[in-house]
Amino acid sequence: MAVGIIERYAAYLPVTPATPRITLGEGSTPLVRSSRIGPAIGLDQLYFKYEGLNPSGSFKDRGMAVAAARAIEAGAQTLLCASTGNTSASASAYAARCGLRAVVVVPAGGVAAGKLAQALAYGAIIVTVKGSFDRALTLVRKLADEPGVALVNSVNPYRIEGQKTAAFEVVEQLGRAPARLFIPVGNAGNITAYWRGFCELASRSGASLPTLHGAQAQGAAPLVRGRPVLRPQTLASAIRIGNPASWSSAIAARDESGGTIEAVGDDEIMAAHRRLAREEGLLVEPASAAAVALLLKKANAGSLDGTEPIVCVLTGHGLKDPQALTRGLRVPRAIEPTLVALRRVLG
Ligand code: AN7
Questions:
Q1: Does the domain made of 60-155 have the CATH classification 3.40.50.720?
Q2: Most buried of the four, 1, 108, 250, 336, by CB within 10 Å?
């Protein structure tokens, strides 16, 4: 039976024996060794942490399990969030699971089709606002102190705590810490969480610390530019964020790890997105491909040691954003059910 992250990592999480062991079977996602991209670019030990295989299809489920459990413990009846999509899908799933109400506030036109479909299906109350994710987050933060409401964006410390378990798993699966870890950055909670996880392992068991490389989209790269972006733009809607809540902890993770946060263009993101599907059989959403786009850029520039273990975090499942998957492609027309017609198509 699937053991969730609260059960698995209770000793390292802010939970007590009284905290409900909420789970949808999150965590324990595979670390998949690259079969074709790594060898093609001279990296012997390239791995993908496939977080799209979490129950609602993204890494958010790790943090949401802990946030939901603590919310229930505190007597909340409503999980509230602003979201570019995945947080809303995850909050809606865990709320449904626990008999809570989910209220999700999303930017108009800013959420991929699969994620909205999830929130609808899980029975959330969906509020669409005219404006960016950043405006939506500012708005919901004002409701965070209402009685019975738990704000479950990554400003909720239990979200970060739950998400750090992904770093624990990477080290368990690799048998050591990777030399480098590539990760997409939006609201900057996840890079904060991974760094915390790696640091805790280092102090607990002497594991080494990886160098972190965060990827932002060129049109939504506040951490790269050093100032908020008023109208963030990118095809990678999950990371279309102009003023990340965990700004300072992301910069700390970057600097303490000796790493970088860099921007990649939408064309590079979509090229990496397609390569993951066609050369690895890994379906991801565009935001996840941003990390791989940055890896490809650095490999191209000759700045990676091909003998070291490198991990790319694939944060969300490809089916979240079917429009991105089929961009520039189309489903072929139906043929007559004859051998002649089939042979004609196959050439
Ligand atoms: C697939 O759902 O912010 O830097 O509201 O969905 O921790 O924000 C999603 C973010 C990367 C960035 N990859 O993580 C939301 C939301 C995927 C994501 C990120 C998100 P953070």
A1: no
A2: 250
